Amino acid sequence: MGYNYDDDFRKNAERCYQTALKILKPSKKELEHGLELHADAFVAEPYGFLPAAHVRIDLYDRWLDEGLSGIELRDRYEEYILMNFIKEGSNLEAFKYVIERAGVNCIGVNAGIENNSVSELIKRLSYYTCLCDSYPEMLQRCTTPEQMLEAKRNGRFAVAFDANAVPLPGHIENLEQALSFIRVFARLGVHMMHLTYNRRNLIGDGCAESKDCGLSGFGRSVIEEMNQHGVIPDVAHSSNRTAIEAAECSKKPVVISHSASAALSDHYRCKQDEAVKAVAETGGFAGVCAYPPFLRGSGDISSMLNHIEHFVNLVGADHVAIATDCGASVGPLRHTQKTHRSLPLFDSWWARNSELKPFEDTGEMWDSMAWTNFPLFTVGMVQRGFSDSDIRKILGENYLRVLRETLA
Question: CB–CB of 51/408 below 8 Å?
């Protein structure tokens, strides 16, 4: 279903805010304290997206008229929605507004793509690098916790880099060559990488496979290389067994950057308690997303808080975070009537997706967890009786701690 967008980004944010308030129903004291705490805390998403825009109809139609399709069309599309959009109309103003309203100080942006191709990974990394370099007064690329805290003090938004995959050469000759790009991307500032993306790869099994064979021998070498070069192994899209075995062999923290609890939802992207405990034992954390189809239940902000509370009760507030996996859209939502012929995405080819029970998400669900509602996530934790200290950990301190331990 998705969000109910209005052309006015301020109206969007206010509508979403009011939707969440109606669900939470905080007292005046809870609301005021939560908002004050959020404004004072260091707020970081371990995994997320910078505000982005939809492609203008005339641009998309022009690309189709030019005959672009497949990878060419996707590259032109991503270049616009992740970088070039900010130059047009009121998008820069909207970009600044939604960041300020969310009260988020740092995002580990998904600066990769859902495969292991070095050339594909470098494209998305280039978009975010260029965006940060083009607006240094607003955005600061950061690779250490100290830089992130400095950015907050100086009124800048801290941008860290994650990747949805481990970069691997297309032709592998030996183990050393296969692992070499982990070091390269770490030097480029990528300090968190997904071991798998839903499906099986050379490293291990993904969460959507019908059988769970866990981490491969090569995967163990990948984690050893990550440990040596300051890269956090992320098992958000990995199978439960892969997550547990990654935690068992890693000498540094492993994280589940953005997921939810399998105890509360039957979606395959959710993690079982055993996997969450294994990750917590490494010093890592489990991040809760804001994606209704994963959360299930009521599918709104209260459901998200249920997952946070479950993880806190399971492993303690030292091992929980929030990573929405949604981001914010700026500018109007518009669709073109034109289209190009394409085959279904590979992710829909496996039967596992069809095994899920039906779940109908609504605009109200999405609105209640809009990225600009981040301060209300804090209000919700205040309502649940979390201490200020624990809330600060969940909002960003756990991410800083894990990054420090990884870089040490």
Answer: no
4, part of any domain: no
Biggest distance spanned by C-alpha atoms of the chain: 63
Q: Position 86: which residue type?
A: I
Neighbours of 147 (CB within 10 A): 15
Asked if residue 31 belongs to a domain, the reply is yes
CATH number at residue 299: 3.20.20.140
- Assess if residue 341 is contained within a domain: no
pTM (whole model) above 0.90 = yes
Number of independent structural domains in the chain: 1
Round to whole Å and give the CA distance between 363 and 12: 12
The answer for residues whose C-beta is within 8 angstroms of residue 246's C-beta and 6 or more apart is 195, 204, 215, 219, 223, 233, 235, 238, 254
Residue 209 CB partners (closer than 8 Å, separation 6+): 199, 200, 239, 350, 352
Beta bridge partner(s), residue 199: 197
> Strands 286-288, 256-259: parallel, antiparallel or unpaired by DSSP?
parallel
What mean pLDDT do residues 211-219 have? Answer: 95
Does 339 fall in a domain?
Answer: no
Q: How far apart are CA 233 and CA 399, in angstroms?
A: 13
Q: What span, in angstroms and rounded, lies between the C-alpha atoms of 5 and 12?
A: 6
User: CA-to-CA distance for 130 and 218, rounded, in angstroms?
Assistant: 33
Q: Which domain holds residue 130?
A: 9-334+357-407
Is the CA virtual torsion 319, 276, 47, 191 positive or negative? positive
CA gap 315, 336 in Å, rounded? 47
Which segments of 29-173 are extended strands (E)? 44-48, 52-53, 106-110, 139-141, 157-163
Distance CA(10)–CA(16), nearest Å, equals: 10
Q: Specify the pLDDT at position 383.
A: 98
pLDDT in tens, 28-64: 999 999 999 999 999 999 999 999 887 777 888 888 8
